[in-house]
Amino acid sequence: MNRHLKRLTCKYFTVEAGDQFFPYFAATFNTLQASEKRAQSFNARDSRCYLKPVKELSLGKDRGFLLLLVRERNTWQCRAAASGSISSPAPKQGILGDTNYILLNLDRRLLTGFSSDSSSDSLKSRARVVLERFQTDRSERVVLNPVEKKNSEFEIPRSGYLKVSCDPNQLKESVRPASRIVDEICDAVIGSAPIRMQIAIPFGLEGESTYNEVDVSQAVSFLSESHHVSDLKLIDAETEKASDNLADRFLKFKSQVATRNRYIDEETAEKVLLEAHAAYG
Prior knowledge:
This protein is α+β, with helices and mostly antiparallel strands. The chain is globular, with a radius of gyration of 21 Å. It has 6 helices and 13 strands. It has helices at residues 21-34, 123-132, 168-172, 180-186, 213-223, 266-280, and strands spanning 4-16, 40-44, 47-59, 62-72, 79-80, 86-87, 97-105, 110-115, 143-146, 160-166, 197-203, 229-236, 252-259. The protein folds into 2 domains: 4-147 and 251-280, no CATH class; 160-248, no CATH class. A hairpin with a 5-residue loop joins strand 5 and strand 6 (86-87). The chain is 22% helix and 34% strand.
């Protein structure tokens, strides 16, 4: 069987949670791992999910925990046969979906993860769903903050343009915040096929835009994390100077694996995430 090449992008997040989360995480992890089923099945945002605590790892002096989340891709799946017949998948045979692996460094409160769904911007939300399953107090929130590169600070000029290079079609399918600028970008969709466009959105310019600094800040926060944005810059209307590419302001680790499987197995995921964790330093 031929090997398949799969490109993976690992992302880093710092973890903020309630006072009881970190002290009790390991105990909850071990209890779930020792249970008869060794996994949880639950619903999240109208999709079926499968959560498995894979193993505890040693990260130097720190404790690491590897977890797998499979999120059902489509609840209206069907099975098609060569004869032309279409039927529902056989019941009680699990779910079909995308693999999401995360490695939590409990001592450093650092999460490293990737999704096999390369078109998805949902790693952050899916990782949060995983960690919230370990909350002892469900009223407290888990917050994940993407790790920025050094010297990645930026200033929003009083007036200018937000220049974006992206695929509006794929961006439209992402879980989006309430942002007027992002809505305008998504409204630039042409047809349904993937297409990369360059869009310049004015802000702070009299007669040209109603967008202000808050609008720009909200848009940059979302767009700079998106997998579907390749270039994101702020252009100062007065000086005509452009910022650095804000789409590249967050730390990432890229890897490529060769596998005979049509999915990312646990052993491969462990190797990739350990490499990514070591690269973080």
